[in-house]
Amino acid sequence: MRFDHYDPEGFYDELFIAKSKPRPEATLLIERFNSFSASEIKRRQQSAQIALMKLGVTFNVYSDGQGTERIMPFDIIPRIVSAQEWKELEQGLKQRIYALNLFLHDIYNEQKILRDSVIPAELIYSATGFLKPCLGLNPPGGIWCHITGTDLVRDRDGRWYVLEDNLRCPSGVSYVLENRRVMKSTFPQLFNTMPIQPVEDYSSHLLETLLNLAPEHLSDPTVVVLSPGIYNSAYFEHSFLAQQMGVQLVEGRDLVVADGYLQMRTTKGLQRVDVIYRRIDDDFIDPQAFRSDSLLGVPGLMEVYRSGRVGLANALGTGVADDKVIYAYVPQIIRYYLGEDPILANVPTYLCWEPQQQSHVLANLDKLVVKAANESGGYGMLIGSQASAAEREAFAEKIKASPRNYIAQPTLCLSRVPTLMEEQIEGCHVDLRPYILYGKNIYVSPGGLTRVALRKGSLVVNSSQGGGSKDTWVVCK
């Protein structure tokens, strides 16, 4: 199980330039792996998976008839990004988040971008993530998107593209931190010899970002993580991050609005809460302001938030920027607010609400990937090249019935990373989700979550669709 005959097969490979020729930043890693026997590699892979199981690194799948909780599959061959390349990605991510934050503040306040017809107003008002109760909001520091996970992919030409933005409740960073912990114990010598940038300080950066939302006059503000509860797909992460930051993990039933403030029920009585890291979708967070049938949120929270007596990360209403139709306008958003060209490109996107582009999509469904505007996790998607004629025909009807809710993109030849597949090493497709924190400054955690399609040839990397993860190493020369 060596790399001697590993072949990128015409794809962009993250570790190899060509057959048996590793990239400079991956040379030490490949040499180390080649020094192991096949049985040793399998032993270390099994050991890493067992360690993650003991740590309780799980996710939930609502539609899984075998039970809700699963262990996140993990592969011990890491993805490597050079420090120089990471510097360019970091600049592009900071630019994008800064512009999107200005966009969010604008559309909920002065709406200059709509008056200037950069984006059609009807697209904003018809977006499910656009929340009218948030009109006129002014979050602390004018910051709306405090925690973001931006999905990146690399095509056959090696160029990076932004696949989508996640500004509501992005998940997955706990896997980044736990994957790194397991890799350091599995390959301690590599971490002693290779200049791998650390990720362990993410939780302290996250806490600092949250504390930045508290009123300045408070010397010791109370921060909590608000979770929907144990049946949520990312509950492990909610409890993990609360533990790492040393703050309380709460559910809606633990909180109450009293005397004009948000209060937490404790054994000693009510305690004021100043900042919430919310992992509940907007619609469920306050039954008085949004969904009246929600049992997950806190009645009256919106009024306390609007008055400035509690901070929320992320701000309510950020989901409008996650809409895949709005995503297509992000290059224009960057140019409008910053007067700059985007550093990171979008994937070319067809908007099905425009008749001419819809006609092109319907005529080329066998060559395109079609996505629902507000779905995630690999759901509501058609990969035309892998779908049957009947599936494409059914999707065509969906597009014609609701054109505003669909976009289409060309099928990218996603980059690959060598991955352990039973008795051999195979190239598997990957994406990358870096995590960006926006407090006093914008911080991008080095690396991010590399998600890998664990079936050869598959382009679907989502854990809910059978994907797994890898550690991501940003390596200095």
From TrEMBL:
Domain Circularly permuted ATP-grasp type: 78-453
InterPro entries assigned to the protein according to its UniProt record, in alphabetical order: ATP-dep_Glu-Cys_Ligase-2, CP_ATPgrasp_2, UCP005522
Protein name as annotated: Circularly permuted type 2 ATP-grasp protein
